[in-house]
Amino acid sequence: MKVCLKCGAEPPLVSQLCHSCIRQSVELSTISKNQGMICCKSCFSLKIPGTWIEFDDLDSSVSHFINESIAWNQDASKQNSNLSLKQLDPQKFRASIDCEGDYHGIILNNTIKTEIQIKFQVCQTCSRQAGGYYEAILQVRTKRKSILDEAVEMVYNQIDSAPSDFFTTEAGPVRGGYDFQLSSTEKARSISRDLMIKLGGHVIETNTLVGRKDGKDLLRHTFGVRLPSVGVRDYLFMDDKVWKIARLDKRRAKIVLLSAPYSQKTVEVDSLRNTPILDESLDVQIVSNRLSEYQLLDPFTFKTVEAISPKDWKEGKIRALRYGNDTFFIWD
């Protein structure tokens, strides 16, 4: 019968040792007693070779550094650590780490301790923000305030959801639109493309030489986003009829006629420049109906009017639009 090589105990054995001797002789995890790390004093990002990792606070940055510093036994699986931090001074932490792991079916535990000395620097992102750094200018232009507001909100949402190395140094309204100074040319190009896809229009890209570095020209790019004054779901009055914009694709718009024969066509956005845009539609109350004949309450004049529903209409919503002295009913 095989027995433990260390104490002579009978099986079960792992690597010819009993479970008790395994727990006494196998080291689950180790860590250096004294370590140093570099952290950004402004945003608490942790410096690692080649880059910085973002964290919300100093404790999170230190905890990540410590967990990454643990050396686990290579035969241990299901590794788990529970960290307890104590700040000794503004630049020094002491940590106690309770570790647990599975070593060939045996659950091992140990506690390791370390002290961390922090050296504070300023990361590249914070340095650039403080220095007013920007690579690109995004110029949003449109004659319609509601579309400008939507575009500006889209840009800010992309900035807020991006990593911290993408930021705006300066942004604000200008005559005819809104300007952003952005830290990334590629991201500015991507945002301008997104604006064009969603809101239509076109983008003009130019660049200016601002210097040289390592023998290469440094260019600052300007992205001029020219948005139309019409948007998707706008109602238009054209050719004495009401049309709805169903889709915008760069400089072209797909529009749908909202009365018989309910046709659709694609037109140049520029051709809609002087086309009247109708105000928001209002809900219509049905007074009575018989088959396709309806009596409707005009929400603008509060008078009862007669109307015939479209042939295939299946009692959906009815909305009304006003142009001049005329009310137009939309059968959704």
From TrEMBL:
Secretion signal span: none
One GO CC term on file: cytoplasm
Domain of life where this protein originates: Archaea
Start and end residues of each Nmd3 N-terminal domain: 4-227
Entry's Gene Ontology molecular function annotations: ribosomal large subunit binding
Protein name: Nmd3 N-terminal domain-containing protein
Record organism: Marine Group III euryarchaeote
